[in-house]
Amino acid sequence: MRAFIFPGQGSQSVGMGRALAEASNVARELFQEVDEALEQNLARLMAEGPLEELTLTENAQPAIMANALATLRASGISADKADFVAGHSLGEYTALAVAEAFDVATTARLLKLRGQAMQAAVPVGEGAMAALLGLGLDGAREVAEEAAQGEVCAVANDNDPNQVVVSGHKAAVERALEIAKAKGAKRALLLPVSAPFHSPLMEPAARAMEEALGGVDIRPPVVPVYANVIAAPADDPAEIRRLLVEQVTGMVRWRESVAAMAAAGVTHFVEFGGKVLSPMVKRIAPDARTTSVVSMEDIEALVKEV
């Protein structure tokens, strides 16, 4: 069995999508479709930068989705070649687009709004996120609880057995770094992000997404989509809508999602548009095969075996 997986924020880079657009008409058409939906030249920003503008959450989120989707489109591989699809945080929207629950234009507009709402929820400088390595989920939860001290510090991403991310008020997250080190973390470091994603501080963004998703037609997915906040497939449009709202403030249960797919029989995880998730998958399901598909050479190699 095979799962297609899609990366989240942090996988953006200047030059992304350029070679795909030059080599593939369908990839170029996908980028044009996203540009038209957003009424901006996102493809040029992806190809040429500047990095500071591309890294802005409202640009990074649709750009990462567009790049991953264009990579899949360029391969000519259809969604029915996957038994499951899943994505990390914003990657869940990419997975839903692949599963035809959203059309591409709707996905792009939702991610643009999601990025804007997340950035607006907390003033720059007031929030932070940190990766804690070597403590596991229970250890990270203990650190977050001890660090909060009346502020918000919560587990945001359970990425793999070795890496858990906490998120919240900057002072609380900085306290978490010191507490984690005292508790034996292998490493504890602040992440270069502009807002405390997947924490209760994102509540204003959740309400904005609730309103936006309320006006969107969501179709039943043609392939099961694992939802971040339940680490299980969701197929009812009303449930998908609810879970996407919950995802804004809720924990990304990536470790559990991958483990569940492996337990269901998935032996091959194919990551489109990035190389971030595959190492996590190997730490969660060591016996699984992983393939990262980024370049045209990667696409050609994958097509030969699918």
Based on the model shown, name its key terms.
Alpha-Beta Plaits, Malonyl-Coenzyme A Acyl Carrier Protein, domain 2, single chain, 306 residues, four-stranded antiparallel beta sheet, six-stranded mixed beta sheet, 14 helices, alpha/beta
Describe this structure in words.
This protein starts with a strand and ends with a helix. The strands form 2 sheets. It has a 6-stranded mixed sheet, sandwiched between helices. It has a 4-stranded antiparallel sheet with strand order 4-5-3-6. It has helices spanning 18-23, 25-38, 42-48, 51-55, 57-75, 91-98, 104-121, 136-148, 170-182, 203-214, 237-249, 254-263, 277-284, 296-303; strands at residues 2-6, 84-87, 127-133, 153-160, 163-169, 187-190, 225-227, 232-234, 268-272, 289-293. It has 2 domains: 2-121 and 201-303, 3-Layer(aba) Sandwich (Malonyl-Coenzyme A Acyl Carrier Protein, domain 2), CATH 3.40.366.10; 127-193, Malonyl-CoA ACP transacylase, ACP-binding (Alpha-Beta Plaits, 2-Layer Sandwich). With 306 residues, it is of the alpha/beta class. The chain is globular.
